[in-house]
Design goal:
Radius of gyration: 27 Å
Protein name: CCA-adding enzyme C-terminal domain-containing protein
Organism: Paenibacillus solanacearum
Number of domains: 3
Shape: elongated
Number of helices: 13
Number of strands: 0
Helix content: over 70%
Structural class: mainly alpha
């Protein structure tokens, strides 16, 4: 077997722990904050190699996309500022995201996004063990070693970036921007309980909270990054949720222009369109039957 010693993954993982700790200690000395913090996920076991590879991908996903999400995005944009030869190592973070999807989800090859993920991951695997579809323990061991080595290179680049900031005359501005970015980041789960409350207040307690949040979360996250300082999360989030709920209301009314003309005994014309607009506003606040909608229109008119 022309491979590194079987204890190599443990040695590399120990080196990774050390690098993560070093990065966090530098950050804390600069700004009393950390990029990663405590990883509660158990260190992956590396045997058998296939299972070890899958566990390792999951461990790095937690590190980069749960613990370090905002900070990783922020500092990755600065790595090339201090040394553009290090930019190539940033792709490791993207690789982890793609591999996690590839290994833990059912991909539909008929969907372009899924097809792209599969192509990327199988291309990566092929370059590491000479096959796009690893089958043997040796195949998976090669991929595992390569993944850990890529992580070491990336964390070295990140550490170099942080140490460069430490010496930068613009250090205070960079760190203030980092703190601002972190304070404006609200993970998806923070919205879930509020969505349920708002939906219930609006008579939409049937709402699928998780599905609704997934649909609008990217838009909401962008909104908070652009908010003025000292906003109150619950107030701003409620506005966003209410607006989205109104926009999410089915636009197909239970009545038509013909219904309005017959009910109000009016001829075709602009007035029909005006009443339809009022009907849409009423229906957006609370879905109801055609007769109830007509009754509410009658009261308003």
């Amino acid at each position: 077997m022309n491979l590194l010693h079987r204890s190599a993954p443990e040695h590399l993982m120990y080196d990774i722990f050390r690098k993560v700790d070093e990065i966090d200690r530098i950050c804390y000395s600069l700004n009393e904050d950390k990029i990663f913090g405590t990883v509660s996920v158990t260190m992956p076991k590396f045997t058998p190699a296939e299972l070890g590879f899958i566990r390792t991908v999951s461990w790095f996903y937690v590190l980069y996309f749960e613990l370090g999400k905002v900070s990783i995005d922020y500092f990755n944009n600065l790595i090339s500022v201090y040394d553009n030869t290090l930019e190539k190592y940033i792709s490791h973070v993207h690789t982890i995201h793609q591999l996690r999807t590839y290994l833990q989800h059912n991909l539909d090859p008929n969907k372009q996004q899924n097809k792209s993920i599969q192509k990327y991951c199988e291309g990566w695997l092929s370059t590491k063990c000479n096959t796009a579809v690893p089958a043997t323990d040796d195949h998976w061991f090669s991929c595992l070693i390569e993944l850990l080595q890529e992580a070491c290179s990336y964390l070295d680049a990140l550490a170099f970036c942080i140490r460069s900031i430490e010496q930068d005359e613009s250090k205070e501005t960079i760190l203030t921007n980092w703190s601002s970015r972190k304070s404006r980041y609200h993970p998806p789960h923070q919205f879930d309980q509020l969505i349920s409350v708002v939906a219930n207040d609006m008579g939409k307690d049937y709402l699928d909270t998780e599905r609704f949040r997934k649909r609008y979360y990217p838009e909401w996250a962008t909104h908070f990054q652009n908010c003025k300082a000292n906003y109150i999360f619950e107030v701003e989030a409620r506005k966003l949720i209410e607006s989205a709920l109104l926009a999410d209301t089915p636009s197909i009314l239970p009545i038509t222009g013909k219904t309005i003309m017959e009910f109000f005994d009016i001829p075709p014309g602009p007035r029909v369109g005006e009443i339809l607009q009022i009907a849409k506003s009423i229906y957006a606040k609370e879905q109801c039957s055609a007769q109830e909608l007509l009754n509410q229109l009658k009261e308003k008119l």
